[in-house]
Amino acid sequence: MLEYIDKAPALEEYKEMRRAVNFMTLSDRIAANALNNAFHITVVRDGGKAVGMIRVLSDGSYANFITDVIVIPEYQHRGIGTELMRRTVEFMRSTLCEGEMIALYLMSATGKEPFYKQFGFKTRPNELLGAGMSQWLTK
Predict the structure, then answer these.
(1) Would you say the pTM of this structure is higher than 0.85?
(2) For the residues of 77-120, what is the DSSP string, one character each?
(3) Strands, E, within the chain: which ranges?
(4) For residue 109, pLDDT beyond 90
(5) Are 46 and 75 spatial neighbours (Cβ–Cβ below 8 Å)?
(6) Cβ distance 58 to 40 under 8 Å?
(7) What pairing do the DSSP bridges indicate for beta strands 49-58 and 2-5?
(8) Fewer Cβ atoms within 10 A, N terminus or C terminus of the chain?
(9) Would you say 9 and 35 are in contact if contact means Cβ atoms under 8 Å apart?
(10) CA distance 37 to 40
(11) How far apart are CA 29 and CA 102, in angstroms?
């Protein structure tokens, strides 16, 4: 039975889930910081095994960023990602007081935009917003 738990996975579980979906490899230091500094994390467990997760970064105000939407391959196409997104959007909405508004951002993998559109996300650029931009730094 799947359990959705609002708690960070162990470091090795996080790194293993990232490996399973071919996400970039992170050093232990960077991975630990990612988990420790998240605003909100939900992990999906099946019999104790971490099979998916989602993470939110936040300034505690209006700027919020969804990242690490992960479902390991053998659990994909079972509605887990949809449930993670649904719970996360609802959690973020629950942080608001009447009349308040916050921004919820994410960067979609190529071809996954339709998945996020069902939750109200808009592709950029559009009539109101320019292209989302990013860069990777290395040393």
Answers:
(1) yes
(2) TSSHHHHHHHHHHHHHHHTPPTT---EEEE-PPTT-HHHHHTTT
(3) 2-5, 40-46, 49-58, 63-71, 103-106
(4) no
(5) yes
(6) yes
(7) unpaired
(8) C
(9) yes
(10) 9
(11) 30
